[in-house]
Amino acid sequence: MRDKRIKLIYFSMKGSEIKYIELSWKKVFVLASALLVFLFIFVGSIIGLFTNYYHDFQNESLDRVNVTLRTQLQEMKEKVQRVQTKMEELEESDDEERLIAGLDKIDKDMRSVGVGGYDYSFAEELAVFSKDTREEVSDTWSLIDQLERRVKLLTESKVYIEQKYSENLEKWEHTPSIRPVRGGRITDEFGLRPHPILGKVIPHEGIDIAAPIGTPVNAAAAGVVKSAKNTYTVNKGYGKEIRIVHDNGIETRYAHLNNIYVKPGQRVNRWDVIATVGNTGRSTGPHLHYEVIVDRRPVNPVQFFLE
Ligand SMILES: [Zn+2]
């Protein structure tokens, strides 16, 4: 079978004439295939070149990002460590406040360790990092966790201290701790002594503070008036007297009074003027007989004075 031929017409510059060559289909096919292969390789190379370049570029910027992230991480960890140092100072002053409030210190180990610690170095999310980075991230997380627990503990401690303070204040306000009469001399101490009128030795269940009639008598602490006896018998008993109930089983008694300004059931605060010094009842001169009774037993009032 005769090969079909194809005419390729081209314009020759030499001699300015139209020429043609004849090629067999087979040759055309070979030439076309060669051209195709060439084009394929050429385009492939260009794509490859650009892809390489792009990858290099991307890698380079990823490297930069990586370095920046690691530096940031390092700085973050240092910052957290600095906060922890500051936290230690806060914890020390917290311990001081606790001591003043009458609370126990919190153990250092208890503050820093606590419960619920988690080892992040095994976290799946961190598997993509290098060992160093993984440790760095894990350490930072642990530090932050620890800090969070310490802040929580400190906050709770502050609340507790505040509570204790107000309890203490409440208790202090209800504890008789002042001389109920400004000035005045203690003419008779607490304890055994020969009775000035009866002559025999009987216990003196309070102290006597000598002061002119009309000298204000102050409540020694906050409390509620238990009794206010406005009547008296001459040369008998404690005369006009007031009893005040404070907290914790403590009572105070003010006797031989002149004027009484309070009524039973009335609330009083420390320093409130409740009466004036008098000479009522069995008394040898103007004075205040003052008693502090703890759990129904008279105790020496002087040991309560803070002034
Ligand atoms: Zn007395």
Note the total helix count: 3
Q: By CATH's scheme, which homologous superfamily of the largest domain applies?
A: Glucose Permease (Domain IIA)
Q: What radius of gyration results from the CA coordinates? A: 50 Å
Q: What is the typical, i.e. mean, pLDDT?
A: 89
Amount of beta strand: 25-35%
Secondary-structure element pattern, one letter each:
EEHHHEEEEEEEEEEEE
Q: Sheet bearing the most strands, described?
A: 10 strands, antiparallel
Q: Estimate the global geometry from the Cα principal axes.
A: rod-shaped
- By DSSP, the count of extended strands is 14
* Helical amount: 40-55%
**Contiguous runs where pLDDT drops below 50 for at least 5 residues:** none
Highest-level CATH class of the largest domain: Mainly Beta
